[in-house]
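The passage that follows is intended for readers who have already worked through the single-chain material. We present the inputs for a multi-component assembly, then the predicted structure in tokenized form, and finally a short commentary. You are encouraged to pause after the input and sketch how you expect the pieces to fit together before reading on.
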Amino acid sequence: MAQTRVFFALPVPQTAALALDRWRRQLPLVSGRWVPVANFHLTLAFLGELADDLLDALLDDEQLANPRTPLPPFTLEFGELGYFTKPKVLFVAPREQPDALLALARHCQQLQGRYGSAKKEHRYQPHITLARDVEPPVPPAAAPLALTLGCQHYCLMASHNSKDGVRYQTLARWPLRRPLRPQPRD
Ligand code: 3AM
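Having made your guess, compare it with the prediction:
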């Protein structure tokens, strides 16, 4: 049976992606390779390879249509440059992690626990990867980054490997909604 490599992510709209690309180009990187602008995203949970029947079951899961906890929209302010030493990944991270982001990540990680084949990472570090295979030392940024990302929905993405590199495809997306406030009735 066919398998698809999938993960939950927040998309990065094109305007924000282009601004992020302009900003990263001033980093004096001497090694590594830039992630294509079209591939910018913020991973919420990585599930790994899913067989078609499991992928269908995930997409039909009641938790995606009606989450148990409210998943409201939120805003992320990016500015921190970071580096993962083992995978040699250069990234930007939000300055703060709003409760709504952490609730959304937990929701996706619960689905990862139910359907995913990948092991759960120890500590969740929200980030947008800028470059891979970057050898230390990591260059400091000359100009501060000021990037605001309004997060209104999240996606299930498929990751496809091709001779031209990795390509991501949006399989499904769900809105983040503010819970309805009870209204007094006249
Ligand atoms: O670019 P980032 O880091 O946000 O690192 C991979 C990428 O996220 C992550 O899933 C996203 C799409 O590939 N990823 C890939 N393999 C992984 C694994 N085995 C993984 N995350 C955790 N475990």
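Commentary: The helical segments are 14-24, 52-59, 62-65, 99-115. The first strand starts at residue 3 and ends at 11. How closely did your sketch match?
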